[in-house]
Amino acid sequence: MKYLSIIRHAQANHARLSQRDYDRTLTARGLADAKQTARHLMDLTPMVDQILCSAAQRTRQTAMVLCEQSSKHLETEWPSPVRLEEAYLANAITLRTLIQNALLGAEHVVLIGHNPGVEELVAKLCKPETDRINHFMATGTLAHLRFDLSDWKELGWGRGELIKFVHISGR
User: Fold this and answer.
1) How much of the chain, in percent, has pLDDT values that exceed 90?
2) Whether pLDDT at 127 is above 90
3) CA–CA separation, 90 vs 102, rounded Å?
4) Residue 70 in contact with residue 48, Cβ under 8 Å?
5) Quick one: which of 96, 105, 159, 108 has its CA closest to 132?
6) What would the mean pLDDT of 60-86 be, rounded to a whole number?
7) Which helix H or strand E contains 144, and what residues bound it?
8) Is the confidence at residue 168, as pLDDT, over 90?
9) Distance between CA atoms of 23 and 61, rounded to whole angstroms?
10) In this structure, what are the phi and psi dihedrals at residue 53, rounded to the nearest 5 degrees?
């Protein structure tokens, strides 16, 4: 079995004049929401083996809050996030390819990214029966899926079972 937790970055500030979208930081509410997301992630089994995140500032900050919370509340710390330039504003196909290249032996991978790519990824990965619906992923939302796979390279559309969906936004 393989487990994939897909998280949309926490709430970010609007870009300031002359600031690139890539450099936007989390708001105070975004930081608080990321802590809530971490609590839900820590309740999941198995333990997180790998964290993949977009290289944008807001996804890196979200990942760091998750890791800080895990080190405070768990006996075993989560691994440091792997920053991927290709994940910045990526579509579902690109995100799936990045996951397919996850660490050999990783049982639970976390992906932190952006909309619309993460929403599209969840919709396409879920089994077609009842799970494959369009879930709105507000900032900080966590979707946790289970796959009957032995290797991440086997990851394909319509093969995942959505076992947890948590909307964290403080709106």
Assistant:
1) 81
2) no
3) 16
4) yes
5) 159
6) 90
7) strand 142-147
8) no
9) 11
10) -145, 155
Output the six-digit token pair for 61: 């900050």
Neighbour count for residue 129 (Cβ, 10 Å): 8
What CA dihedral angle connects 59, 60, 65 and 69, to 10 degrees? Answer: 110
What distance in Å separates the CA atoms of residue 158 and residue 33, rounded to the nearest whole number? 29
CB 119 within 8 A of CB 134: yes
Q: Compute how many other C-beta atoms are within 10 angstroms of the C-beta atom of residue 98.
A: 19
C-beta separation of 25 from 15 below 8 A: no
pLDDT at 133: 62
Residue keyed to tokens 């890196």: 60
- CA 102/CA 140 separation, integer angstroms: 22
Tokens for 87, please give them.
Answer: 């994940």
The pLDDT value recorded for residue 2 is 97
Q: Which two tokens stand for residue 115?
A: 């909309």
Q: Is a pLDDT exceeding 70 seen at residue 131?
A: no
Q: How many residues does the chain have?
A: 171
Predicted confidence band of residue 17 (pLDDT cuts 50, 70, 90): confident
Beta strands, E only, 14-128: 50-54, 82-84, 108-113
| Run of H or E including 75 | none
